[in-house]
Input
Amino acid sequence: MTGRLRGHRTTLLITLGLLAAVAVVVWSGQGGRTAEDLDPANPGPAGARALARVLDDHGVDVSVARGADELDAADIDTATTVVVTSTDSLGRSTVERLLSTVGDARLVLVAPGPGVTDAMGLGGQPSSSTLGQGTRGACADPAYDALVLEVDATLAYPAADGCFRTDDGDAVLVERDGVVSFGAGDALTNDQILRGDNAAVALRLLGQDERLVWYVPSVADLVGDDGVSLASLLPDWLAPGLWLVGLSAVALVLWRVRRLGPLSTEPLPVVVKAIETTLSRGRLYRRAGDRAHAAGALRRAARTRAAERLRLGTVTDDQVLVRDVAQHLGRPIEEVAALLAPDAPTPASDAALITLADQLAELDREVRRT
Amino acid sequence: MAISGRVPLLLLAGLVAVLLRPSASTVLLWLLVVTTLTLLDWLVAPRPAALSLERRPVGATRLGYPTETLIVVRNTSRRRVRALLRDAWQPSAGASDNRHRVSLAPGDRAVLRTPLLPRRRGDLRATGVTVRLPGPLRLAARQRTLVVPGSVRSLPPFESRKHLPSRLARLRELDGRSAVRVRGQGTEFDSLREYVRGDDVRSIDWRASARNRNVVVRTWQPERDRRVVLVLDTSRTSAGRVDDVPRLDSAMDAALLLAALVARAGDRVDVVAGDRRVRARVRSAGARDIVARLQDTMADLEPVIAEADWDSLAGAVQAMGRQRALVVLLTPLEPSAIEEGLLTVLPALTRHHRVVLASVKDPALDRLAAARGSIDEVYDAAAAEQVLARRRRTAELLAALGVDVVDADAEQLPPALADHYLHLKAQGLL
Output
């Protein structure tokens, strides 16, 4: 038993480590924290817990409503401000439900996108924009007039009377029929709330009434044909999951790329083909089109071979050889001379050269056969 | 450092945590945990110094014949060491299955066997032993390549060994009856024996027969203690490959067969190898193990891209001794190389010795001369005929100088050369 345990010790260790890690993560996930952007319970850089805490400290009664049901249950009257973050998760049906629930209370929408402004009937397409350095409120509302809003990117709405005008002339903060659209959602985050006068803007925006209902809409409340943005439909573990898979792929590459020692090298020998010089000589003849030389070489070789075959010795006269070959084969002397004689005409074309080569080979075979 | 496949798996296991707490910080936290674990594992992994490696000498083997190399690995540390080792050799040494897993208790040792199958002649070297030592979690490992020198000497294969028995049989036949054309020269009287039918009547010793009741014949044995000098040309012409085998290797094969035969026949073999300078000299002094010594010497001879200096080679032959010898020049019958280098020194050699030139013929040349299908082939055939004619002329020139030329394919050259030697010996021309 102990032997088996020892054998699987590392597996056991890894499994234990895994369980411990999961336990730590689960435990740290307790306490209602979320990773939602601008969530009043999110302490991360993109959350808005700081704002919610400060409002609470200043005597504003902050209550968080997650989902439409909780919103319905919330106590909302004219002395209440309703703020909606994560407006991406609002659909047509939840907007209607929101409007009916809010009634006369003041409604603040944080960074509503085109779908939401449409559903609210606010009119005018929001556009992504930037604020110039040190942009002041510069509007009729004295609460924001002298304040400086500092964010990197913002949504702006076409309006004649809004506050914080962007370079394009649109306004970041617009109020219509008791509905406030505030495009610079980043200004409320834990990360950026201390830049410029962002904190003051946020407190004046949300702290006007005794009570603040912080509505975090939930995708689960939507009905079938609501148009919502794609991001709200994807499961929230997808992006971190993909990151993890990507990291794992990198580790996989690092694992496979490490070789067990360097490549072994071979001191290479010289490779020379013995036939190479002959082949290049052949190419030389071909390039020069030297049929005379080629035909001469072939005829000479055929004469040598015939002389060897007929045992005429190496120093035979060419005419004697032609005569003997003709006699031996029983062919006319002229025919054999046209093939073998050193002074026979050079082939006029490549085709003639091939024919001559073939005939010489045939003659050679005949001499050998007889 | 090297990580194992467990690291990506462990990273993937973090998906569980991400499902429970979907946030970027979970990923970071998980990555941190895995990285820390991996680094810790690497830190506590045993060091390469914990192993001592020692290679046993490999020795020699014939090319194409398997052998193996042994490494003794010893754990010199005080803890158990697991390791993956790779015994790397240059590729032509043919080290297969060269990865070994060991698990050694303190003070323990193991012998790692790596089979080798040399595919090239010469000294083939080990390039290093890579040691990978994983930590206790086997997430990360220390890795280092250690130099553990070693080499295997791959001898010429001596493929023509198969021709030896038949030639030795011929040699024994010669021992029994030496038909000597030139009487009295270079033949040694062996003994007298009774005449049996079939004996040459010219060998009847009448004087002895007169003293005896039976007819007595003289028997002769071939001369012994002759000298044969093999000259192995390692210059540029020997680098040329015939059917992808360098001519030098074929020449070595022929030299080995001839040396084995000569040693058995009671003659002495000396070998000179060289190109621009003399690369190897072997004097046998009648030793029986001449083949092994020759193989050992030839193992690391490689062709050199340089012209042969026949003056110095001929000088080395002359320096071997003044006694008349059979000088076998193992060099390709390459007209230009021979006319420029060898011809000038041949007269000096032929004056003192009997000279044979053994050359590896390229069968591709004959094939090229016979192919006459297209115009390209015809031009190539013409070139091949031209080369063949020049070779023939050079051979005739050599014959006129009194040099015997043995020109044969790589396969045929060793037996042809051996037969030529036997022929000369039978004729008493050594």
Q: What stands out?
A: Chain B has eleven helices and 20 strands.
